[in-house]
Write a structure and sequence with these properties.
The chain has 2 helices and 32 strands. By secondary structure, it is mainly beta. Among the domains are: 124 residues, Cupredoxins -  blue copper proteins (Immunoglobulin-like, Sandwich); 120 residues, Sandwich (Immunoglobulin-like), CATH 2.60.40. The strands form 7 sheets. Strands 12-9-14-19-16-17 form a 6-stranded mixed beta sheet, with no helix packed on it. Strands 23-22-25-30-27-28 form a 6-stranded mixed beta sheet, with no helix packed on it. Strand 16 and strand 17 form a beta hairpin.
Length: 486
């Protein structure tokens, strides 16, 4: 079955086509797909394949609620960037703001000087200046790009802004077994500081807590970041056009948690998500589930079989979050009624159901234990975050031998579920809270509150490599480390 039709999507930046070529730009709702027309010469005087402009933008969440932020090419989300795996590409970034910026190419295996992180010694895009990123995109899959500056106490900086977008690296081998392709970015807006407990989608997840301390820290919590306004792409629930479908269609959904703040769970009543890939990497055991959970930085590719005619809400499983905007309407042809939401008792999120039975992979050459702790109010008004008892920076604590296989064991001794991201590498998930698995390849993984997880990776990308929690405030206040190659 091939893609058959084109549909206008609410806030989605692109529509699928029957062609698998990435060589033509197709505008959608004012946000074009940006693709290289060909591999240009890498000479500095050549025209770049893709141009990004960092500048103030407005985001019309509703006709009466329009926010001002910083985005790419006049929109947020920015344009979907389509690249071909293994074909060199150049991206010219113009920074029309008053502060230095970085663009991080999340999930790509590229050198540290173009990865887009200050800690890795990537040069900044200067204020009112430009910088050209030149790299060969790989591996194929759903990636994304976003700012990678520090925010600290400035909620108008970094991932609190609208600087993010999908990056699709095409292998040229897409079988096209779907009728429609949609891009859904989960977002929160207008962040604020609070000392009240934050909402936490993972709080309802039932499971062991092997890292829970015998005596909990009862010191008052520092200020954390929260939000009361949410969207899918650039519209709150009900403010944009619905996604229009017909019975029998197969819809390929690319879903990204572009939040700076929180893990999110979503569902579509009466339907299931047939998960094909996580973080852009095919899962060993595709499986249908009723609910998806994504930490900031995570992506899921899933097929949705449109077999329940009606008008439905695809949105957050938490009522408060969904009612505050985190959702989008799915409307079947010839159906005209109020959008429905029906809560379900979906099974808790479990990465391991998409893996293979444990075993078969090489034993690690080295094991590195990483213990994560929170010091309430340890950074003035804010919490401090420790990795192995220290805040960032640290000197040459994590040194890798090129070609060796490493096992990172994450010990989360905090009351938050942390989405942990390793730059420039892909890791294999091997254990979550004592449940072993194999074959699940990722670049970001949620370690449950008071939980434990282990991942394996091969040190095959020489250069500085940043590791951090993808919740912006946690990274800002110490939750990161730098891996070096010997």
């Amino acid at each position: 079955m091939k893609r058959r039709d084109f549909f206008k999507l609410a806030g989605a930046a692109a529509v699928g086509s029957a062609a698998t070529s990435v060589l033509a730009a197709r505008p959608q709702n004012g946000a074009p797909i940006a693709t290289p027309s060909e591999a240009n010469s890498e000479a500095p005087t050549s025209k770049a394949d893709i141009t990004l402009r960092i500048a103030p933008v407005t985001v019309p969440l509703t006709p009466n609620h329009i926010i001002s932020t910083i985005g790419y090419n006049g929109t947020s989300p920015g344009p979907i960037l389509r690249m071909r795996e293994g074909v060199p590409v150049s991206v010219e970034v113009f920074n029309e703001t008053d502060v230095p910026e970085y663009v991080h190419w999340h999930g790509l295996h590229i050198p540290s000087d173009v990865d887009g992180a200050e800690e890795e010694e990537t040069p900044a895009v200067p204020p009112h200046g430009s910088r050209r990123y030149q790299f060969t995109p790989r591996p194929a899959g759903t990636r994304w790009y976003h700012t990678h500056t520090m925010a600290m106490a400035d909620l108008n900086r970094s991932t609190y802004t609208g600087q993010f977008g999908f990056l699709m690296v095409d292998s040229g081998r897409d079988p096209g077994n779907y009728d429609q392709e949609i891009f859904l970015a989960l977002r929160d807006w207008e962040p604020f500081f609070t000392n009240q407990p934050m909402d936490a989608d993972e709080a309802g997840q039932v499971g062991p807590q092997p890292e829970r301390p015998a005596v909990l820290d009862t010191r008052p919590n520092g200020l954390e970041v929260d939000s009361l306004v949410f969207s899918v792409n650039d519209k709150v629930l009900g403010a944009g056009e619905p996604i229009r479908v017909r019975p029998g269609q197969r819809v390929l959904a690319h879903i990204l948690n572009a939040s700076a703040i929180e893990n999110r769970s979503i569902a579509l009543p009466g339907h299931t998500f047939h998960v094909l890939a996580m973080d852009g990497n095919a899962v060993p055991t595709p499986r249908s589930v009723e609910m998806l959970m994504l930490g900031p930085g995570e992506r899921i590719d899933a097929i949705i079989e449109m077999n329940q005619p009606g008008v439905w809400i695809l949105g957050a499983t938490q009522d408060m979050i969904r009612n505050s905007g985190l959702g989008i309407v799915i409307e079947y042809a010839n159906e005209h009624r109020q959008p429905q939401w029906v809560p379900s008792a979906a099974a808790p999120w479990d990465y391991t159901v998409f893996g293979r039975p444990p075993g078969g992979q090489p034993a690690p050459d080295h094991t590195i234990d990483m213990v994560f702790e929170k010091i309430p109010g340890g950074a003035g008004q804010f919490n401090a975050w420790l990795v192995n008892g220290k805040q960032y920076p640290r000197d040459r604590e994590f040194v890798l031998q090129q070609g060796a296989r490493y096992r990172l064991v994450f010990h989360n001794r905090t009351d938050d579920g942390h989405p942990l991201h390793l730059h420039r590498h892909t890791f294999e998930l091997v254990d979550v809270n004592g449940k072993s698995t194999s074959g699940i390849m990722k670049d970001t993984v949620i370690v449950p509150l008071y939980g434990r997880a282990a991942v394996d990776f091969v040190a095959n990308q020489p250069g500085l490599t940043l590791f951090h929690c993808h919740i912006q405030q946690h990274m800002d206040y110490g939750f990161k480390a730098l891996f070096r190659y010997a």
